[in-house]
């Protein structure tokens, strides 16, 4: 059996594992990587090379900073201020919740944003007498596409930018993603208000009969720490936005995290606990899987299939739509991080094969990976609200189907305009 076929077989088993959820996603990814190494598809010495990637250090630093935002009460203060000004009606609260989620997810992990906003949303819903199912899914979805606008907003952004750099192309700027991220976010929120919320359950799940404070501790607010944390966050984002070659992003993130600890915004033990080790293990493991796809020729086979489907077309919209649809299909079974890691080398190969702008293809992959709404396992935010919202699998299909279509339509229109697929 050829290495490519063996790789596809392991990928199928991993997809089944992700779908069944019998193992945590990180365990499924790590097991798949180790099987690929045992089969000799990747050298044993390269099995854990993904864990040395500086992107993992960047993620770890931003997890700490993001946690400090919530532990100091800064996030909740901003959330309370925004939501309370909107009143107690469902529609104003929907927009207030989505707005806060969209803003926070650009500067902190969308997973951390969702996890921290869940108790706030539960509390607000109980106070206003609104079923939590009406706000939790819109909040989670907004965290997903809200993070598109900044380099650190969501893992797929960092993955595709790193893939461009390692392939010899110019990586994306810090806020370059906003060209498509902002239109997608606005269209997504508008869809959730006008259409999506009509498919959400209107009954209060029994599991939400407790107070929001019972779901997770509400951190004590300290104004001095809130101001310090706000200053750290602003400084980190501004320095990262300058994209200074002499100062790596991971260095800035770690310095910011250390200042958060030294200033007392977050304790040392809390900082360690705030790091989403599951995400880091998943990320590092999937790098090994992506390496196996490249070495086995599996990536070349998929890229060849895409080339045949594209058929040397010079229609930019056809190319972008094809990549978006492929990524959306994979998002039914794989996490957004896994999709981005798997498709990044394929995107580079596709761009070279048809003479397309690699930035256009990679931006398409990033956007499609973050706009996975058809399944609760597509993104961590989707999964986090599954139980507290009392949702069923089909709720994601009903609400997320139309939302995915809207986001794809916006991306198809915007990406070729900002990043010409076939530059002259």
Can you describe this structure in just a few lines?
The chain has 424 residues and is mainly α.
What would your notes on this structure say?
With 424 residues, the protein is mostly helical. It has one domain (3-418). It has 20 helices and no strands. The chain has helices spanning 3-20, 25-38, 54-71, 74-85, 90-107, 110-128, 136-146, 155-166, 178-194, 212-215, 223-242, 249-262, 268-274, 277-296, 298-310, 316-330, 336-354, 358-370, 380-384, 393-418. Helix 4 (74-85) runs antiparallel to helix 5 (90-107). The protein is globular, with a radius of gyration of 21 Å. Mean pLDDT is 82; it is low at 205-217.
Report the end-to-end length measured between terminal Cα atoms: 43 Å
Number of helices: 20
The biggest sheet amounts to: none
In what range is the share of β-strand residues? under 5%
SSE order, one letter for each helix or strand: HHHHHHHHHHHHHHHHHHHH
When the domains are counted, the total is 1
Question: Quick one: overall form?
Answer: globular
Report the mean per-residue pLDDT as an integer: 82
Helix share, percent? 55-70%
- Rounded radius of gyration (Å): 21 Å
> What is the structural class?
mainly alpha
Number of DSSP-assigned strands: 0
- Give unreliable regions as ranges: 205-217
């Amino acid at each position: 059996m050829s290495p490519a076929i063996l790789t596809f077989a392991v990928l199928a088993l991993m997809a089944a594992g992700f779908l069944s959820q019998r193992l945590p996603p990180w365990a499924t990814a790590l097991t798949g990587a180790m099987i690929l190494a045992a089969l000799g598809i990747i050298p044993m010495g390269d099995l854990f090379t993904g864990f040395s990637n500086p992107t993992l250090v960047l993620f770890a630093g931003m997890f700490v900073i993001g946690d400090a935002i919530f532990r100091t009460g800064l996030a909740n203060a901003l959330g309370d201020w925004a939501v309370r000004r909107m009143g107690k009606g469902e529609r104003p609260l929907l927009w207030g919740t989505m707005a806060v989620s969209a803003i926070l997810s650009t500067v902190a992990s969308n997973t951390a944003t969702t996890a921290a906003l869940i108790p706030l949303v539960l509390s607000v819903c109980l106070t206003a007498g609104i079923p939590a199912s009406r706000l939790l899914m819109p909040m989670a979805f907004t965290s997903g596409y809200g993070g598109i606008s900044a380099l650190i907003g969501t893992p797929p952004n960092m993955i595709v930018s790193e893939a461009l750099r390692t392939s010899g192309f110019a990586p994306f700027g810090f806020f370059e993603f906003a060209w498509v991220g902002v239109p997608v976010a606005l269209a997504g929120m508008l869809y959730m208000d006008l259409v999506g919320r009509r498919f959400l359950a209107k009954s209060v799940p029994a599991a939400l009969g407790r107070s929001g404070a019972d779901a997770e501790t509400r951190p004590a607010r300290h104004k001095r720490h809130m101001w310090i944390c706000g200053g750290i966050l602003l400084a980190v984002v501004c320095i990262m936005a300058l994209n200074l070659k002499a100062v790596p992003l991971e260095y800035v993130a770690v310095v910011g995290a250390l200042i958060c600890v030294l200033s007392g915004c977050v304790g040392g033990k809390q900082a360690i606990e705030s790091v989403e080790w599951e995400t880091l293990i998943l990320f590092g493991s999937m790098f090994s899987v992506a390496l196996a796809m490249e070495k086995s020729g599996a990536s070349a086979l998929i890229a060849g299939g895409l080339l045949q489907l594209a058929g040397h077309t010079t229609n930019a919209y056809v190319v972008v739509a094809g990549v978006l649809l492929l990524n959306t299909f994979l998002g039914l079974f794989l996490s957004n991080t896994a999709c981005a890691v798997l498709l990044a080398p394929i995107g580079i190969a596709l761009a070279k094969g048809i003479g397309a702008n690699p930035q256009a293809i990679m931006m398409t992959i990033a956007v499609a990976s973050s706009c996975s709404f058809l399944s609760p396992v597509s993104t961590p935010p989707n999964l986090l609200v599954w139980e507290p919202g009392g949702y069923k699998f089909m709720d994601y299909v009903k609400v997320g189907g139309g939302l995915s279509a809207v986001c794809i339509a916006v991306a198809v229109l915007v990406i070729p305009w900002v990043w010409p697929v076939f530059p002259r």
